[in-house]
Amino acid sequence: MGVEVRVEGLTKSFGRANIWSDVTLTLPPGEISVLLGPSGTGKSVFLKTLIGLLKPDRGSIFIHETDLVRCSESRLYELRKLFGVLFQDGALFGSMTVYDNIAFPLREHTKLSEAAIRDIVMEKMHLVGLEGSEHKLPGEISGGMRKRAGLARAMVLEPEIILFDEPDSGLDPVRTAYLNQLIIDLNAQTDATFLIVTHDINSAQTVPDNIGMLYRRHLAMFGPREVLLTSDDPVVSQFLNGRRQGPIGMSEEKDSAQAEREMAEIPGELEGVPPLKPQLVPSPGLPERKAVARRQARVDAIMHTLPKAAQDAIRASREATAQAERRAGRTPVAAYPSGYADGPTERLNPVDGGEPPQPGRHRI
Amino acid sequence: MSAPTIVTRALTPVGKFFLLALEIARMTVKGPFQWREYIEQTWFVTKVSALPTALFTIPFGATIALLLAELTRQFGAQSQTGAGSVLAIVQQAAPIVTALLISGAGGSAVCADLGARTIREEIAAMEVLGISPIQRLVVPRVLAMATTAVVLNGLATVVGVAGGYYFNVVVQGGTPGAYIASFSAIAQVSDILVSELKAVLFGLAAGVVAAYRGLNPPPGAKGVGDAVNQAVVISFVLVFLINLVITALYLQIVPPKGS
User: Fold this and answer.
1) A280 HSE (CA, 13 A, CB side)
2) Which residues in B lie closer than 8 A to residue A88 (C-beta atoms)?
3) CATH at residue A114
4) Which is it for the CA torsion A343, A304, A216, A245, positive or negative?
5) Residue A337 lies in a domain
6) Contacts of residue B128 in chain A, CB cutoff 8 Å?
7) In terms of CB atoms within 10 Å, which end of chain B has fewer, N or C?
8) Global model pTM greater than 0.90
9) A298-348: pLDDT as tens digits
10) Contact (CB<8Å) A85/B125
């Protein structure tokens, strides 16, 4: 199971420019969390702070009860081995082949024989659908392939936390959809804690268990995906609708005159957040995500604190997930409408419908 | 949080630079040493700077020879041209040519390489994988530059002296015997030793500057270009300063031959 990452009161500035302050959140173990935010709000900076590449001004990051910000250099290197990071362009070493890139962490950190390394590398390459590209150089493969190779390298040491820096940047919507499915599948197979930094709305709607949003140098929100996706906050609905009308401007803030002018361009009321999309489930043939049951228990415990709209959305998406699970040929152990404090008293009948999904691996 | 003052902002990079230099020294001692990378980098830096050094030294040696021949003729001491030319080349010209080429050709190549790796996030990826990029990439490059500097200095000395001889004897019609005799009358072994010592220091300094700028480029692809530019300018200034200090010390400490 993945580890919990607890961030408390994190503040970061570059010189005089404050990037964000007082960010407090907990990444629940094994769950997928997404950090959303307009460009330039310091999402990537947050990711780099989380792995200790940048030092925050204040605050703490706890992993296994060790504060990453204040621990010794050697402990930091030790803790970093728990992390796998997918950088924006894959960050492959340009002078090495794809195979050597993926084998690199194993050769550096383990005493495995070349044969054993070969087995692991081939398994990871199969996992991300890169068979046949092992002898190519990073410059000779496409951006999507570089990302997947970077993902294979990030996973080769079996990390407990995997961070994704804009996995969808530079990919077309179809490739993004495949990559999103791959992320869900990997989560089901590894049960590691995932954090995805993105500004792709579709990914944010369909992939995560939890969503946070950075805006105006603060963490505006962090919680179960349904909370943000049903929020009536004008910033959230502007962002999710991808429109100009709302508080977010071209540079971070805009003046009220401009806001009024833009509002006048559209007749009537602004629409709220888009309808909730169902969360992706693992491909057929894979196990259920263990995080789903844990998340359910966790969300049930805080259910009464959530807004009414979010509560309804959580129930609805549980039902949708259960149906999707059945379509994928699994029995959803965890999915039952909440409100039954003692667990499910009755199981809903399986819903038939939709084409049976094709077995087999997906490729980008 | 108080805003950093001008002094703090000006001194922070200097502090970071020395910190990097310390870290490089620590990692060199600590190991494990990356022999393969070191040999490859030495070959690479030598490849980009050897030919320019030779080409640079010939006109440089010739200029000194011409100037000295003219000067000594006015003093009526043509027979001493060899001595002057050799001293100038061994002690000053060769190390300075080395300094220019090691910073200009070698340092810029190293800085561009590290800078490109930094913006492609290769360096960050390496750190996240728990591998020190200093130990893995920077130490071999800095030591490769020091090694190459020594080799280049030797090359520049030979080419410079040969060039000086050619211009003095063949072009200006000087006496070969007088040239050689005055040369061995004044030159001493410590001249070439201190010249090589300078070369090592130039190589190290230019290497650390290239690494520092390469690892901390301004953002974007243009940033790497700017970083390379700055690395070359900073290392020029730095190596000339080192040259001044060592020359002054050498002249104070080691007595000239025959005095």
Assistant:
1) 23
2) 121
3) 3.40.50.300
4) positive
5) no
6) 51, 53, 80, 83, 85
7) C
8) no
9) 888 888 888 888 888 888 888 888 888 888 888 766 544 444 444 444 444
10) yes
